[in-house]
Structure of Protein SPEC3:
Amino acid sequence: MMTSNQQFSYDAAGNPNYGQNQPPSYEVSQIGQTAPPQTYVTQTTVTTEKKPNGMRNAIPELPIALAIVLCIVNFLLPGIGTIIAGFSVLCCGNVGQSGGGRFGTFCINFWVGIAQLLLLGFFFLGWVWSIMWGVAFIAIASE
């Protein structure tokens, strides 16, 4: 308990300045009450932003129905859906996020489809890549 003869003031930060006296101490009363505990809560927020890479930029923006069909084709016939997506950019798709021309997006998708076909025999890497590319068709079309 603080006695009446203790004097203190506050510094610029708002902290009590007791001078030569000690800060007031709290004593446990007869009924078992103590001073309230001090708790500090800190909160940290981390925000991440995904930026598309070069190959993701080359995936064309297709109508959602065509994107679903080409995803299924890529699942059944790896690379063929990607090649068809390349051709579809010339007539009914947008060039995607790359901002490049239609012919450039066609070429990238055509050669990626060929690479998916060629890598099919190498631990089914072309098949997995083709499925990922087909799912990306749907993801971009739904945006």
About this structure: The chain is about 45% helix and 5% strand. The chain has a mean pLDDT of 78. The longest strand covers residues 9-10. Residues 125-142 form the longest helix (18 residues).
